[in-house]
Design a protein that fits this description.
The structure holds two protein chains of two kinds. Chain A is of the alpha/beta class. Helix content of chain A is about 50%, strand content about 15%. An eight-stranded parallel beta barrel of chain A has the order 1-2-3-4-5-6-7-8, surrounded by eight helices. Helices cover about 45% and strands about 20% of the residues of chain B. The chains are: A alpha/beta, B alpha/beta.
Chain lengths: ~270, ~400
């Protein structure tokens, strides 16, 4: 069994929900990212989503767009992200790591080359925002070959046919985008999220992570009651920019926010 | 999979693309986030339904005639042909359309579709501003709210069009992310669409984006080639020997080319912007110098670095300043049905002046690329041969840019 499945199994046995922080790799530099991955685990993260910066992040709001721009200015690339995970695995062999990004860098590297390189260094899954299951056959075959989990998104507008289509090919967990919009947007309607999650749960038994719009511990606790995992991204990146120029402070702010989310999630469930 | 000569021949002979999922060979498709899939499916259904609906088509035809001013003439540029020497150059005068370019053929069609779908809000991206103006125009006419995304850099170099859009009641949003040009405006429009999916229709201005856009925009633009084919037969009793059109995203080009694909005697040339020269890297010529990848919802030739990050493009013409290209052009290139060439800033500028001076027609800088290549090509052909050039837009919007380049204060 791979790290992702193990992680969700262990959490279920402990009656806990997964906390999944997202940061953009290389924002503001690769050493910060590596150090932050470790400190996020200490602060209570169960799985890490590492953003692969892309020049045209169409599904992201301004916070993650700017993070991508900073990372690219610092020379980060898909290969660079894989190198960070390699270093992370030198001291952490248990925390699952998922890469999240867009298709074009993977197209340019080649599906097989990417899946092989990622799996080799201990990447557990990949979420590629702009490839729906209809276009995924070749990519999924490469993931299958190297035992990389394909993580997919579901959205409030996904109908039952699409939910089924995605559930059929998804591995590890499914990421439910909790609102109509881009990352970091608006505010969540918990009743709506609950209703849609119920629908999805009828169709799939895969763990459901919920993200987009998780800004603080209170929202994280509410989401933890509904889903199997809580994803927090833009709020963490804001910690970095709020302490721009002082990386230690930024990292501490991320840890503090994750701590508070962990505590309220564990109390709520 | 490599494409064999047999594949190429059969692809041209029985040309019927895209397939039902929007593929032109390996190109096109639907590469968007799940958050957009429902809207795209809704659009696909509406597009398929209304393109078969006689009422819709009659309304479209009436608008093209009475509002756009179609058919646009084909004009024999005799003085230009004589000055150049060689083939006879004919211009398909899309510059004479309402709003001054071919863009309105598409916006009229998509806006009617939006109205039938019950959408009350229209969004668009724009580069040179022609598509933005054409969208704001139809939105004004139909009483729809209109928001146009435009790169901050393009707003600087196309200020007359920005003002026109505002006069028409559109809100123009400056996009300051990335390279602040057309591609970033497209990203921002997609983000808006995802957020306001219930009431908003996104009018993409070119034959790019996820399926059905490349096919739908093409279908609305093929009026150029359908008319042009009839007009050339009437004027010259034969088909033209060659077609020439500029290619940014490639909507005017596909509109001209598509009705001629099965006519094997007709050579097809798409002209990309070489900017400062393809060899300098500062250009907008993905078909000439890029490689296939995925951007803005489809697989196509792109300009990207070795890591797959999209790189900044350059062209004197804002409308050609785009790192991708419509997926059907990628396919026409691979099957060898069209040849893609390039013209640099200086050559385009020279053609701009030549056409203006010799024929009294001020072409858009985009279209000047096509004119420039046509004059090169004509020299290699006989006097009894003909070239049909898509004069996709008029140059009024560009006079400030050109004056600035030439150090003239207006």
């Amino acid at each position: 069994m791979n790290r992702l499945d193990n992680c969700f199994k262990a959490l279920k046995e402990a009656n806990k929900k997964a906390l999944i922080p997202f940061i953009t790799a290389g924002d503001p530099n690769k050493d910060f990212t590596l150090s932050c991955m470790h400190s996020m685990v200490e602060a209570g993260a169960d799985i890490i989503e590492l953003g692969v910066p892309f020049s045209d992040p169409m599904a992201d709001g301004p916070v993650i767009q700017k993070a991508s721009e900073r990372a690219l200015e610092g020379g980060m690339s898909l290969k660079g992200v894989i190198a960070i995970v390699k270093r992370f695995r030198e001291t952490d062999q248990t925390t699952p790591v998922v890469l999240m990004g867009y298709l074009n860098p993977i197209e340019f590297m080649g599906y097989d080359a990417f899946a092989k390189a990622a799996a080799n260094v201990g990447v557990d899954g990949a979420l590629t925002v702009d490839i729906p299951p209809e276009e995924s056959d070749e990519l999924l075959a490469a993931y299958e070959k190297y035992d990389l989990s394909a993580i997919f998104l579901l959205s409030p507008t996904s109908n039952n046919i699409r939910i089924k289509k995605i559930a059929d090919v998804a591995k590890g967990y499914i990421y439910y985008v909790s609102l109509k919009g881009v990352t970091g947007a608006g505010h969540l309607e918990l009743d709506e999220v609950q209703k849609k999650v119920n629908e999805i749960k009828q169709i799939t038994s895969l763990p459901l992570a919920i993200g987009f719009g998780v800004k603080n511990a209170e929202i994280a606790a509410n989401i933890a009651k509904i889903g199997d995992a809580v994803v927090v991204g833009s709020a963490l990146i804001n910690c970095i920019t709020d302490h721009s120029g002082d990386e230690e402070q930024g990292q501490q702010a991320i840890s503090d926010l994750l701590h508070s989310m962990r505590n309220s999630m564990d109390t709520a469930v | 999979m490599p494409i064999t000569n047999n594949d190429k021949q059969s692809a041209v002979k029985d040309y019927n693309f895209p397939d039902e999922r929007g593929h032109f060979g390996p190109y096109g498709g639907i590469f968007v986030a799940e958050t957009l899939m429902e809207s795209i499916e809704e659009l696909n259904k509406a597009y398929a339904k209304f393109m078969q609906d006689p009422d819709f088509l009659a309304e479209l035809d009436a608008d093209l005639q009475d509002y756009v001013g179609r058919p646009s003439p084909v004009y024999h540029a005799q003085r230009l042909s004589n000055e150049v020497g060689g083939a006879q150059i004919y211009l398909k005068r899309e510059d004479l359309n309402h709003t001054g370019a071919h863009k309105i053929n598409n916006t009229v069609g998509q806006a009617l579709l939006a109205k039938r779908m019950g959408k009350t809000r229209i969004i668009a991206e724009t580069g040179a501003g022609q598509h933005g103006v054409a969208t704001a125009t139809v939105a004004a006419r139909l009483g729809l709210e209109c928001v146009v995304y435009m790169g901050a850099e393009d707003i600087q170099r196309q200020s007359p069009n920005v003002y026109r859009m505002k006069l028409l009641g559109a809100k123009v949003v400056a996009v300051t992310s990335g390279s602040q040009t057309l591609k970033d405006a497209l990203n921002e429009a997609l983000r808006d669409w995802v957020t306001n999916i219930d009431n908003t229709y996104y009018i993409i201005g070119t034959v790019a984006g996820p399926h059905p856009y490349p096919a739908m925009v093409r279908d609305f633009q093929t009026i150029i080639g359908r008319e042009g084919r009839e007009q050339m037969l009437t004027k010259t009793d034969k088909l033209p020997d060659a077609l020439v059109a500029c290619v940014g995203g490639g909507s005017n080009a596909i509109g001209l080319f598509h009705p001629f694909i099965a006519d094997e005697s007709v050579a097809i040339y798409g002209v990309e912007a070489a900017g400062l020269g393809v060899e300098t890297g500062k250009h907008s010529a993905p078909l000439c110098a890029g490689k296939p990848g995925v951007l803005h919802g489809n697989r196509t030739y792109l300009m990207a670095d070795e890591n797959g990050e999209i790189i900044e493009t350059h062209s004197i013409s804002a409308g050609l300043d785009y790192p991708g290209v419509g997926p059907e052009h990628s396919w026409l290139k691979d099957i060898g049905r069209a040849e893609y060439v390039n013209i640099n800033d200086d050559e385009a500028l020279a053609a701009f002046h030549q056409l203006t001076r010799v024929e009294g027609i001020i072409p858009a800088l985009e279209s000047s690329h096509a004119v420039a290549y046509a004059t090169k090509l004509a020299k290699t052909m006989r006097k009894d041969q003909s070239i049909l050039v898509c004069l996709s837009g008029r140059g009024d919007k560009d006079i400030f840019t050109i004056a600035k380049i030439e150090g003239i204060e207006l």
